[in-house]
Amino acid sequence: LAETFPVTCGEAACAEKIKELLAQGGAEVLIDAMGNVIARKTAKRTGGEAPKKRLYCANIDVPGFTVLGAEENGRVNIAKLGELDEANILYSTVLFTRGTKVCADGTVLKDGGDESAVFYAATGITDKGELEDRVRCGDCAAIKGGVTFRADGSIYGLGAANLMCAAVLIDIFLGMDADKCGCDLYALFAVQSNLR
What we know:
With 196 residues, the protein is of the alpha+beta class. The chain is built from four helices and 13 strands. The protein has helices spanning 12-24, 128-134, 162-175, 178-181; strands at residues 28-31, 37-41, 52-59, 64-70, 75-81, 93-96, 101-103, 109-111, 118-122, 140-143, 147-149, 155-157, 183-190. Strands 7-6-10-4-5-9-8 form a seven-stranded antiparallel sheet. A four-stranded mixed sheet has the order 1-2-13-3. A two-stranded antiparallel ribbon has the order 11-12. A hairpin with a 6-residue loop joins strand 8 (109-111) and strand 9 (118-122). Mean pLDDT is 76; it is low at 106-117.
């Protein structure tokens, strides 16, 4: 799942992979208009009452950044996606959608003091043409590997938090039997729900 690069607002490939895995396991699966994956296993109906329902949930997004543009000086203009403290990119490897990896060298500048502030990260690429070939406006980026600290103080590891929970839920859900549980079973794999 981590290879699908599910940065907040770009979870479509991850959602499709989850849908494929669940469908192969026999669940009814759909992706809603927001990009959430919803799976269902229906219990056999006995008597006149509809069975109870159980819902299990996991998030599938990874906080990151979106590229707003490239600067002449090799900096990339970025805006954060999801709940991530911008200080976490300092001296970290940042992976962009097209596979470009850069080490943010600690020169992250904040333009403005509000939540929607724009940030600039140095890439070490000094030719603007080369930079624009490797990192384009609209690309997403995430911190590659390791552990980071989120704005709310929680610890986060790319591919180890939300995606690990999603992978575990897939396995558990596919192993559950709705008839034995006596209820309809649902699994929700949610995209970022609290963007500001």
